[in-house]
Specification:
The complex is a heterodimer.
Chain A (H helix, E strand, L loop, with lengths): L5 H20 L4 H17 L1 H12 L4 H18 L9 E3 L4 E7 L2 E6 L4 H14 L3 E6 L4 H17 L7 E3 L5 H8 L6 E4 L3 H9 L4 E3 L5 E5 L5 H13 L9 E7 H13 L2 E3 L2 H11 L14 H8 L8 E5 L17 E7 L2 H12 L7 E5 L3 H10 L4 E4 L3 H5 L32 E7 L36 H21 L1
Parallel strand pairs in A: 3-4, 3-6, 4-5, 6-7, 8-9, 8-13, 9-12, 10-11, 11-12, 13-14
Antiparallel strand pairs in A: 1-2, 2-15
Helix pairs in contact in A: 2-4, 2-5, 2-6, 3-4, 3-6, 4-5, 5-6, 9-10, 11-12, 13-14
Chain B lengths: L1 E2 L4 E2 L2 H12 L1 H9 L6 E5 L2 E4 L4 E4 L14 H11 L12 H12 L6 E5 L2 H16 L3 E5 L8 H5 L3 H4 L10 E4 L4 H8 L4 E7 L14 H11 L3 E5 L13 H5 L5 E4 L11 E5 L6 H4 L12 H14 L2 H25 L5 E5 L2 E5 L6 H11 L2 E2 L2 E2 L2 E7 L7 H28 L1
Parallel strand pairs in B: 5-15, 7-8, 7-9, 9-10, 10-11
Antiparallel strand pairs in B: 1-2, 3-4, 4-5, 6-12, 11-12, 13-14, 14-17, 16-17
Helix pairs in contact in B: 1-2, 3-12, 4-12, 8-9, 13-15, 14-15
The chains are: A alpha/beta, B alpha/beta.
Chain lengths: 498, 427
C-alpha cells in the first residue's frame, strides 16, 4: 500500500513548531536572549572535544584537535564576540529622527556541511538565537549522527535557560528530496546553505529567501617583500589546519619567481613535503580521476594521501605540488579540500593577478584569497582585480579569511557575493539574521522627534474595557446621550491637549 | 453556476431551496434566520469556504472531527493509498487493518484490553452501554443533566430530552440523570447498587464545556467502584490530544472501565469510532464475539486512516503544538477578556477545549457566533447552554493562524456588543 512520507510530514510539523518558537522568541527581551545564548554557547563549548571526536569518526575528515579549536571558537568564542551587541532592543537615532525595531527573520533553515559539521551547527545556532530566530538544522547525511546529538544538546541547554520549546530542531534523517521539499515550504523564512554547489543552487531555487555560498579556491600571493619564513609557516599551518577542510584554505601559492625557491625551502622547514614531478602526477591522478574529484580524500591527512597516491611523505604536514600552468585545465589548481597545495611561479604582480583570475574561473569566485606582502600597491592591485571578496594579508587563509585570525566577522559561512552566485558578500554574522522596522519622522526641523527613551515595545501600557450594561432604559435615553457626549468631549480635549 | 460534475446548482439560493424541499427545512431555515448563511463548499486546513467563496476559519471542527483540519494532506494521501487496496471489508473475519488499529488504540489506552469498532459515536456509546450491562447484569445507566452521547437507541436515552421525547425514545425507568459537578447527587444515584454504568463526557461539550471541579471525576469513579457500576468515559470530544493528553481521562487521572472515541478518529475523512473495553467489560468478546455486529463498524478504510491519526497524535511535534495552541489561547483570551470584559464574561479551558462565556444575555453566544461569522470565524454556541461559545482550535493550528484568529476575534467584538445591545432591546 502506498503511504505518505512520514519523514516529510514530520518535517512539516517541525516547521510549525519552529514558527511557534519564533513567535515566542520575538517577545523575549535582551537579558533573556543573552541568557539562552550564553547557556547554549557554554553547553557547546563543554562538549567541543567530544563532538570533535564524533565528527572525525563519522565523517572521516579533519583533525580532532583542530575541530575542537573550531568548536570552541564557534561556541563561547562567537557568544563573547557579540555579547556587547544588542539585536533586541529598539535603536534610537535622534539625529536622523529614526527608531529601529529589530525584526527577526523567524524560522531559519540551516544546511550543515559534512566538512565542518559541529562548528557550523554551533555557529548558525548561536547567530539565530542572539537574533531571536528559531532554527532547523539539516545536516549533511554523512554527518547526521553527530549533528543530531549536538543539536539536541544545544536544544536542551536552550530550553533549560528559558527558551521556548522548538527553537533548535534537527532533521535526523535527511536526504536531498526531503530537504528540497522542506526548503521550499512557505513556513521557512530564510535558508542558510553552506555546502556543495548543488544544495546551494537548490536553496536559491526554493523560492524562499536564502543565503547560499559558493565553493572556495583561494590563491595565495607571496611577493618579494614578504617575510618568507613567517609566510611559509603561516601557509603550512593554515593548509594543514583541520586537513584543509575550511573552504577558505589555500589552494594555490603564486610566488614571485625571485623568492620562490627560498619560499619552498622555508615551507619545507615548516613541515611541507615538496613533491617531485612524478609525485605530482600521482597526486593529480589520485585527486582528480577521469570523472571529477575524489571526495574520499577530503579532509584526509597528508601522509595518508601520499600513501594512497603511491609514495611516502612521512611527517609531512602538507604536500606541495609545483605546477607550470595556472589555468582550470590544470586540475591541481582547483579546490581540493585536503592538504595538497599547488605551487606556481609568477614573474610579477600582473602575472599573479591573471593567474589568480584564471584559476578562479572554474571555482572560487567571490570567495577568499591571501597575500603575504609588505607592498600596499601589490596588495591593493591584487584585491582590486582578483574575484575574491576577502583578501587575508599576512595571515593564514583558512582562519584569516574566515575571520578568526583577522577582524572580519568570524564565520563558518563565507558569502561569495554576486560573483559567486550568492546574495551575501560578507562573512555571515548575526546582522544578516535580523531586519529592522523603522519609525521615520518628518525631517522638517519644525516637526519634533518623539521621546522614545524608556519605552519598551514588549511592555506598553494597556487599556481596559469599560463595564457594559445591557439593561436598556428608554426614559433615560437623552440623559445617557448627554453623558456620552460629555465623556467624548472630555476625551477629545485631552487628546488635543496632548 | 455551481457545477460539481454529478450535480449542479444555478445559485446558492437554489441550493437552499432544494435543501428545504428535500433535505431538512427546519435546520436550513434556522441558520438563515440566525444570520449565518453558510453552505460549506471548498475546505482546506482550518479554513472553510462558503459557496460565495467567502473564507472562514473553522473553530467548530464538528466537535474535533477536523482536529487536524480539513483534508489534511497526510490523511488524504493515506486514504487514497488505502483505496487502492482496501474497502469496507467483511466484519465477520479478522482483518489486518482492524487488528492493527485495535492494537494501536489499546496500546495508548492503559487498562483497556480490546477495541470494538463502529461507524459513529452513537453506536460506539451503545456498545459501551451494552458492554456495561453485560458485565454487571444490570440495566440502569446514570448520565449527566445536559450531557450528550449521541442519537441512537441507547445513547439518546442518556441525553437531553429535547432529542429523545420527540421520538418517544426517552426511557426514564432505565436512564437516570444527575447534575454535573454534584457528587452528592451522584452518590444518591449509584448507592442503590443497581446501576450498570455511569457514562460521563470528561468535559460535557454540548453543555458548553463546564470544567469538572477538582476531584469530581475521581470521586465519581470511586463511587462506581464502591457500587459496582462501570465508569464509561465518553472521549468523543475530549480525546485525541485535545486536552493535552491522548485521552481526557488521562489528564484527570481517572481510569475508566470503558471508553468511547469517535469524530476525530476518522481524520474527518472516513467515519469510524471505537469503544474500548477492559477485561471485565470486554468479556462478551470471548463468550460470543458476534453478539454485536456492524457491517460498516470498523470499515477497513476507516481503520487505515484512524491508524495514521493515532500515529500522528504521538509525534513530539504535534504534542508540542497542542501545548503552543493551548497557551496561546489562554493568554490570548485573557487579553480579550481584559479588552472586552464588558461582554466577554469568562473562559473555561482545558488544552484546546474552550468555552467562552457571554453571560450578559441568555443567548449571548448565539449573537457572538454571528458577529464572529461576519468577521471570518466559524465557532458554534453550545446547544444546551447558549451563553457559552464553543471554541475548539485544532491541534495543528499554526502560530500565524492563531494570531489571525485572535485579531479577527478582537475586531468582531464591537459588532458582538452591538448585536447584544439590540437583542437586549428586543427583550
Amino acid at each position: 500500500m502506498k503511504v505518505p512520507d512520514a519523514r516529510l510530514e514530520q518535517g512539516r510539523m517541525m516547521l510549525d513548531r519552529a514558527r511557534w518558537a519564533a513567535a515566542k522568541l520575538a517577545k523575549m527581551d535582551r537579558v533573556s536572549v543573552q541568557r539562552v545564548t550564553d547557556a547554549v554557547a557554554k553547553a557547546g563549548h563543554a562538549k567541543a572535544q567530544h563532538f570533535a571526536e564524533c565528527a572525525v569518526r563519522e565523517t572521516g575528515m579533519g583533525v580532532i584537535d583542530h575541530k575542537r579549536l573550531k568548536n570552541e571558537a564557534c561556541s563561547t568564542g562567537i557568544a563573547d564576540l557579540y555579547a556587547h551587541e544588542d539585536f533586541v532592543a529598539p535603536r534610537i537615532d535622534v539625529g536622523k529622527k529614526i527608531v529601529e525595531l529589530p525584526r527577526p527573520a523567524g524560522v531559519i533553515f540551516a544546511l550543515i556541511p559534512v566538512t565542518n559539521p559541529i562548528a557550523t551547527v554551533y555557529f548558525k545556532t548561536l547567530l539565530a538565537l542572539m537574533t531571536r530566530n528559531a532554527i532547523i538544522l539539516s545536516p549533511h547525511p554523512q554527518a547526521k549522527a553527530c549533528c543530531a546529538e549536538a543539536a539536541r544538546l544545544l536544544a536542551e541547554a536552550a530550553k533549560a535557560a528559558g527558551a521556548p520549546d522548538g527553537v533548535i530542531q534537527v532533521i535526523a534523517e535527511p536526504d536531498i528530496p526531503l530537504i528540497e521539499k522542506l526548503m521550499s515550504d512557505e513556513r521557512v523564512d530564510l535558508i542558510v546553505a553552506t555546502g556543495g554547489p548543488s544544495v546551494v543552487k537548490a536553496a536559491y531555487r526554493s523560492g524562499n529567501p536564502a543565503f547560499g555560498v559558493g565553493p572556495g579556491n583561494a590563491p595565495v600571493l607571496v611577493d618579494d617583500t614578504a617575510d618568507l619564513r613567517l609566510a611559509a609557516k603561516r601557509i603550512v599551518e593554515s593548509k594543514s589546519f583541520d586537513n584543509s577542510i575550511l573552504c577558505t584554505n589555500e589552494s594555490v601559492v603564486l610566488a614571485f619567481s625571485t623568492i620562490a625557491d627560498r619560499l619552498l625551502e622555508a615551507m619545507k622547514s615548516a613541515g611541507a613535503h615538496v613533491c617531485s614531478s612524478e609525485e605530482t602526477v600521482k597526486l593529480r591522478n589520485l585527486l582528480f580521476p577521469e570523472h571529477g574529484f575524489n571526495i574520499g580524500m577530503i579532509g584526509k591527512d597528508a601522509n595518508l594521501i601520499a600513501r594512497a597516491a603511491g609514495f611516502n611523505a612521512p611527517n609531512a604536514k602538507i604536500l606541495v605540488t609545483p605546477v607550470d600552468l595556472v589555468q582550470p585545465e590544470e586540475r591541481l589548481v582547483r579546490e581540493k579540500l585536503c592538504p595538497v597545495l599547488a605551487f606556481a611561479r609568477v614573474q610579477n604582480i600582473d602575472q599573479a593577478i591573471s593567474a589568480a583570475r584564471s584559476m578562479m574561473r572554474k571555482a572560487g569566485r567571490g570567495h577568499s584569497a591571501a597575500v603575504h606582502s609588505k607592498n600596499e600597491a601589490n596588495i591593493l592591485a591584487f584585491a582590486a582585480t582578483v574575484p575574491a571578496l576577502r583578501v587575508a594579508v599576512n595571515a593564514g587563509c583558512s582562519l584569516g579569511a574566515s575571520g578568526f585570525e583577522t577582524n572580519l566577522g568570524p564565520s563558518m559561512t563565507i558569502g561569495t557575493g554576486f560573483a559567486g552566485g550568492s546574495s551575501i558578500g560578507d562573512n555571515l554574522t548575526p546582522h544578516h539574521f535580523v531586519h529592522f522596522a523603522r519609525i521615520a519622522y518628518n525631517k522638517e526641523a519644525a516637526e519634533a522627534f518623539g521621546n522614545f527613551a524608556g519605552l519598551d515595545p514588549l511592555d506598553l501600557p494597556k487599556r481596559e474595557a469599560a463595564p457594559l450594561s445591557l439593561a436598556v432604559d428608554n426614559s433615560s435615553d437623552s440623559e445617557l446621550r448627554r453623558e456620552l457626549r460629555r465623556i467624548i468631549l472630555e476625551e477629545l480635549s485631552a487628546v488635543l491637549a496632548a | 453556476m455551481y457545477d460539481y460534475g454529478l450535480f449542479k446548482f444555478e445559485s446558492k439560493q437554489q441550493l437552499l431551496d432544494t435543501a428545504i424541499r428535500y433535505w431538512n427545512p427546519d435546520k436550513t431555515k434556522f441558520w438563515q434566520k440566525a444570520g449565518i448563511d453558510l453552505v460549506i463548499d471548498r475546505r482546506e486546513g482550518y479554513r472553510l469556504y462558503d459557496m460565495s467563496g467567502r473564507s472562514l476559519i473553522d473553530l467548530h471542527l464538528n466537535g474535533g472531527t477536523y482536529n487536524f483540519g480539513h483534508r489534511h494532506p497526510e490523511l488524504v494521501e493515506t486514504l487514497k493509498g488505502a483505496l487502492d487496496y482496501f474497502d469496507i471489508g467483511n466484519h465477520w473475519f479478522p482483518s489486518v487493518a482492524r487488528a492493527a488499529l485495535a492494537e494501536s488504540l489499546v496500546k495508548v489506552s492503559s487498562g483497556m484490553t480490546y477495541a470494538v469498532f463502529a461507524p459513529g459515536g452513537a453506536e460506539a456509546v451503545d456498545i459501551a452501554i451494552k458492554s456495561a450491562r453485560y458485565a454487571t447484569k444490570r440495566r440502569k445507566i446514570v448520565s449527566i443533566v445536559k450531557g450528550y452521547h449521541g442519537h441512537s437507541g441507547l445513547s439518546v436515552a442518556t441525553g437531553d430530552e429535547r432529542f429523545s421525547k420527540i421520538f418517544l425514545s426517552d426511557q426514564p425507568e432505565h436512564f437516570v440523570q444527575v447534575p454535573f459537578n454534584d457528587i452528592d447527587a451522584m452518590e444518591k444515584a449509584l448507592k442503590g447498587n443497581d446501576c450498570a454504568a455511569l457514562i460521563m463526557e470528561t468535559i460535557p461539550a454540548t453543555y458548553g464545556f463546564p470544567m469538572p471541579k477538582p476531584g469530581y471525576l475521581n470521586a465519581c469513579k470511586a463511587l462506581c467502584v464502591k457500587h459496582d457500576a462501570m465508569y464509561i468515559a465518553d472521549e468523543v470530544q475530549t480525546g485525541l490530544m485535545r486536552t493535552g493528553s491522548m485521552w481526557g481521562w488521562q489528564a484527570y487521572g481517572v481510569e475508566p472501565d470503558i471508553m468511547v472515541t469517535a469524530k476525530g478518529l476518522s481524520g474527518g475523512l472516513y467515519p469510524i469510532s471505537a469503544c474500548l473495553v477492559n477485561d471485565k467489560t470486554g468479556g462478551w468478546l470471548n463468550e460470543d464475539g458476534a453478539a454485536h455486529i456492524s457491517t460498516s463498524g470498523g470499515a477497513e478504510l476507516g481503520c487505515v486512516v484512524a491508524h495514521k491519526v493515532i500515529e500522528m497524535l504521538q509525534r513530539p511535534e504535534l504534542i508540542a503544538n497542542v501545548g503552543f495552541v493551548s497557551e496561546f489561547m489562554a493568554e490570548g483570551m485573557a487579553e480579550m477578556r481584559r479588552r472586552h470584559g464588558d461582554i466577554f464574561t469568562g473562559v473555561r479551558q482545558k488544552g484546546v477545549i474552550l468555552g467562552l462565556e457571554f453571560s450578559n444575555h441568555p443567548e449571548g453566544a448565539l449573537h457572538v457566533s454571528r458577529a464572529l461569522y461576519e468577521h471570518g470565524i466559524w465557532a458554534i454556541f453550545s446547544s444546551l447552554d447558549k451563553r457559552v461559545l464553543q471554541w475548539k482550535p485544532g491541534v495543528l493550528l499554526s502560530s500565524d493562524l492563531c494570531q489571525e484568529i485572535l485579531d479577527r476575534f478582537d475586531a468582531a467584538m464591537p459588532r458582538a456588543r452591538q448585536l447584544l445591545r439590540d437583542a437586549a432591546k428586543v427583550n
